[in-house]
Amino acid sequence: MSFDLSVIPNKNIVLAVTGGIAAYKSAILVRRLKDAGFNVRVVMTQGAQAFITPLTFQALSGNPVHTELLNPEAEAGMGHIELARWADLLLVAPASCDTLAKFATGLADDLLSTLYLATKSPVWVAPAMNQQMWAAKATQRNLNTLVEDGVHVIMPDAGSQACGDVGLGRMPEPEDLAYQVTQYFHRAQRAIAEKFGLLAGKHVVITAGPTREAIDPVRYISNHSTGKMGFALAAACYAAGAKVTLIAGPVSLDTPNGVRRVNVSSAVQMLDLSMQMLDEGCDIFIATAAVADYRVAEVAEHKIKKAGDELNVSLIKNPDIVATIAGQQKRPFMVGFAAETRHVEEYAAGKLVAKKLDMIACNDVSRADIGFASDENAMTVFFADAYQLEKRDLEKASKQEIAQQLVEAIHDALQHEIEPV
Ligand code: C5P
């Protein structure tokens, strides 16, 4: 299973561990949840402490472990009501028969069963038990009640059990559980972004990376673009609620979560795909790609052999992708980039007009600390005159932060709702 590690910040999980041999897996589960960016607090029942010590969970979660309901010291710190409020999710793994029965009947005679009644957060249970106990009518009856009450039940896996039996009742692997929890929060985050995000309802198409122009079947002309800015923008647009298509030249970057990526090689392929996206309906087009200005006039069918002291390759101009899209009758909001080594602002403003863009972000690539392969960038943003928006200086920051600010700039320009230039 591929484990999506895109981090979910500032979400709190109360992991409740109950009595069962699967409790040892919960130690690894804490690790995986922390890896995914969750804050984790662990609650242990008496039964759980017969299998594994609170100290293990304290060390792994980085927080004190909660074991007692009526312990004055514990209540003086984070008491059961605070803990119930703190949780964005109460995950009970493993969940014993006894715990399921308490939850189903509303018994509140220990910390966990009280917490269950006191929390407003979603509750997930991962039952783990002997296969006969799982199949028992009372257990199934309790599970049905819990489902009716809105509890999410994670089905146990089948297989050989610690007691020697074979059947349903094994707790799923920690990676699997952490993955399910992560996906749940991703979906929740996505639903909010799609409703309230700055680019909600928009389809954003982004070109990124270099292009590769073939000389013969084994050689090509290209440049050093890494695609980092375009990929960071794709992630930021997705987080802002947009549907995102990333048209990527050859780069070695992972596709951001939720983004549709199409790989291309040459400028001509990149243009073809960009035009296809217009047919699909594109609201915002962002050109971050470092498109090769020229391509080889005639690509050799076979590998060019060494001969003579000179080799002349004739180059012809590539199409300007962003200008071509901007020249279409039904055109999206157009964003271009300019990387210059001098007269940065003057050249960028010229490109804004020449390429009929709505917005251009420019940076000074003569500065060694920003641009191309760097993880940081600093930019100045210009808008087409019709928007009547002041230019914006984006101070040196990570490409992620710059991407976020560019999303805000696009959103602000769209608010002006003028006829496209
Ligand atoms: O003309 P220059 O290459 O400096 O323009 C940069 C901007 O134009 C960038 O947004 C780049 O992605 C876009 N561009 C393009 N197709 C080209 C050349 C540049 O889309 N052939």
Which terms summarize this structure?
Rossmann fold, binds cytidine-5'-monophosphate, eight-stranded mixed β-sheet, five-stranded parallel β-sheet, 15 helices, 2 domains, disordered N terminus, alpha/beta, 421 residues
Task: Provide a compact summary of the structure.
The chain is α/β, with parallel strands linked by helices. The protein has 15 helices and 19 strands. The protein has 2 domains: 177 residues, 3-Layer(aba) Sandwich (Rossmann fold), CATH 3.40.50; 218 residues, CoaB-like (Rossmann fold, 3-Layer(aba) Sandwich).
Describe, in plain words, how this protein is organized in 3D.
This protein has 421 residues and is α/β, with parallel strands linked by helices. It has two domains: 177 residues, 3-Layer(aba) Sandwich (Rossmann fold), CATH 3.40.50; 218 residues, CoaB-like (Rossmann fold, 3-Layer(aba) Sandwich). The chain contains 15 helices and 19 strands. The strands form five sheets. Strands 12-11-8-13-16-17-18-19 form an eight-stranded mixed β-sheet, with helices on both faces. Strands 2-1-3-4-5 form a five-stranded parallel β-sheet, sandwiched between helices. A two-stranded antiparallel ribbon has the order 6-7. Helix 1 runs parallel beside helix 3, helix 5 crosses helix 7 and helix 6 packs across helix 9. The protein is elongated. The protein starts with 11 loop residues before the first strand and ends in a 6-residue tail after the last helix. The N terminus is likely disordered. The structure holds cytidine-5'-monophosphate (C5P).
